Amino acid sequence: MDDEFVEAPLSEFEQAGKIAAKVREESKSLVMADASLLDVAETIEGMIVEEGAFPAFPTNVSINEIAAHYTPEKGDQALFKETDLVKIDFGVSVNGALSDTAYTIDLSDKNGKLVEAAEKALANAIAGIKPGVKVGDIGGIVEETIKGYGFRPIANLTGHMIKTGLLHAGIDIPNVKTEDPYEFQVGDIFAVEPFATNGKGFVSDTEQVEIFSLYLPGGLRMRQSRQLLNHIINNYGMLPFAERWLVQEFPSKLLVSNALKEMLRMQVLKAYPVLKEAGGGLVSQAEHTIVVEEEGARILTQ
Ligand code: MN
Ligand code: MN
Question: Is the separation of the CB atoms in 89 and 7 below 8 Å?
Answer without folding.
Answer: no
